[in-house]
Specification:
Blueprint lengths: L2 H25 L9 E7 H9 L9 H4 L4 H4 L2 E8 L6 E3 L6 E3 L4 E7 L2 E5 L4 E3 L5 E3 L4 E2 L20 E3 L4 E4 L2 E5 L2 E4 L6 E3 L3 E3 L7 E3 L7 E3 L1 E3 L5 H38 L4
Antiparallel strand pairs: 1-2, 3-18, 4-17, 5-6, 5-9, 5-13, 6-15, 7-8, 10-11, 11-12, 13-16, 14-15
Helix pairs in contact: 1-5
Length: about 270
């Protein structure tokens, strides 16, 4: 068995998966509310070490574990993937329907076909029915949506829409509604859906509604992606070079070493 070949193959697959993450980051560099994803690459040895002491497992006795292939253990693989919420960047647009959150752990709540989801999108619109919606058409939820039959915020026809710092919407001096703004205790517990939505089971202890009158949101500003295009391009080049290097090693394993082995095996000594 050519252990080196399988080890390099596993490493190449890992880099392909990393390329997918980097490509998605670059594709969303201008997406409002997008948070970059990243991966942690480790090896199988650590995972195996954690489970080895719990043997015997079905079809894996302690005796068999002694002969576990140590080479395969060292294959690089993605051991974790996470979303980076560490930075916030705002851009002034002057659009009255752009609402930017001021802190990285704050989220709006929206109604989707799959249920209530969190989002940090900041560019909104008004649909044909007069409801305030995201660019995908998901309705923004008001603070009292749990105890109300209203699953959205209806904006009446009139003058300019005004949003106060605490998330209260008004028009012509009359209050329309207050946005549901949630503060997430641990963003690592959120499950990303698509590019800008995050799954949450409501009610959840991890997301607490902001009820005080602080400065949480800013009208006329857009919360832009935290993707650094230069850093992502550097990472893309490095990953591509690793893939090329692994490919050369695979070629060496399959062609040159096999050819050398066949030549020696077929050589008949006089």
């Amino acid at each position: 068995m050519q252990n080196g070949y399988y080890q390099v193959t596993g490493a190449m697959v890992t880099q392909f998966n990393k390329l997918d993450v980097i490509s998605n980051n670059l594709a969303n560099v201008n997406t409002s509310g997008f948070r970059r994803d990243n991966v942690v690459i480790g090896d199988f040895e650590r995972i195996y070490q954690e489970k080895r002491d719990t043997l015997p497992l079905p079809n894996h006795t302690k005796e068999a574990a002694k002969f576990f292939n140590r080479t395969v253990n060292r294959v690089p693989r993605i051991v974790d993937q996470y979303t980076d919420f560490s930075s916030m960047r705002l851009r002034h647009t002057g659009n009255s329907l752009d609402f930017a959150l001021k802190e990285p752990d704050l989220f709006f709540l929206v109604e989707t076909p799959n249920g209530v989801r969190l989002t940090q999108q900041s560019s909104f619109d008004i649909n044909a029915g007069g409801d305030l919606v995201t660019k995908e058409g998901y309705k923004l939820l008001p603070e009292n949506f749990v105890n109300s039959n209203e699953r959205g915020i209806r904006v009446p026809r009139g003058n300019a829409l005004y949003l106060s710092d605490d998330g209260t919407l008004s028009m012509d001096g009359n209050k329309i509604a207050r946005l549901y703004i949630a503060r997430v205790k641990n963003t690592n517990l959120l499950h990303k859906e698509g590019d800008t939505l995050y799954k949450i089971d409501y009610p959840a202890q991890n997301a607490i509604q902001v009820n005080d009158e602080g400065a949480f949101v800013k009208q006329g500003y857009q919360q832009i992606s935290n993707v650094n295009a230069v850093e992502e391009m550097v990472s893309l080049i490095e990953t591509n070079r690793l893939v090329e290097m692994y490919q050369r090693v695979m070629t060496t394993q399959m062609d040159e070493l096999n050819k050398d082995a066949i030549t020696k095996l077929t050589t008949t000594r006089a």
